[in-house]
Amino acid sequence: MFDIKLFENMDAKEKYDTMLGMLRPLIEDEKSFITNISNSAALINALIGRINWCGFYFIKNGELVLGPFQGLPACTRIKIGHGVCGTAVKERKTMRIENVHNFEGHIACDAASNSELVVPIIKNNKVYGVIDIDSEEIGRFTELEQIYIEKCVEVLNEYIDWEEI
């Protein structure tokens, strides 16, 4: 059973440490790719806080295709090199955007989003997709969130065969 109230009095670092601690046992014994990604999106969404969207995009046929997420309906396909997600894939690096309205080529799936954190999923030097997190707050994401979402990708890489996509 998951009780979000347990995390109310924790500071951000404590929540993120807990998130990492919960991620591994949540996915380590489950073989279903879709189950593991869905639960990962839900866990990240529950513990990051002050966000309005959290989910995955995966590369299929040369473009990013929407995967499991938490939030309002989103863009279903994004071209590599376009928007924050497509740029993260093309450049193979994390994108932490303080104000998406200042990012040339930003794709607005949710008009309420003002900042974005996108971490590429790279395993064995191959990019498989991204974790995308949006917030209504300008400047919402710090180096702390970036570090912990990058650590989440490391854990996911241990247990998920991305070739299943």
What's the end-to-end separation, in Å? 28 Å
Low-confidence runs (pLDDT<50, min 5 residues)?
none
Number of helices: 4
- The dominant shape is globular
Characterize the largest beta sheet: strand count, sense, and whether it forms a barrel: 6 strands, antiparallel
Q: Whole-number average pLDDT? A: 95
The secondary-structure element order is HHEEEHEEEH
DSSP, total strands: 6
How does this model look, in words?
The protein has 165 residues and is an alpha+beta fold. Helix content is 35%, strand content 25%. The protein contains four helices and six strands; from the N terminus they run H-H-E-E-E-H-E-E-E-H. The protein has a six-stranded antiparallel beta sheet, sandwiched between helices. The two termini are 28 Å apart. The model has no long low-confidence stretch (mean pLDDT 95).
Summarize the SSE layout with pairings.
Layout: H1 12-27, H2 33-48, E1 53-60, E2 63-71, E3 77-79, H3 83-91, E4 95-97, E5 115-123, E6 126-135, H4 143-159
Antiparallel strand pairs: 1-2, 1-6, 2-3, 4-5, 5-6
Helix pairs in contact: 1-2, 1-4
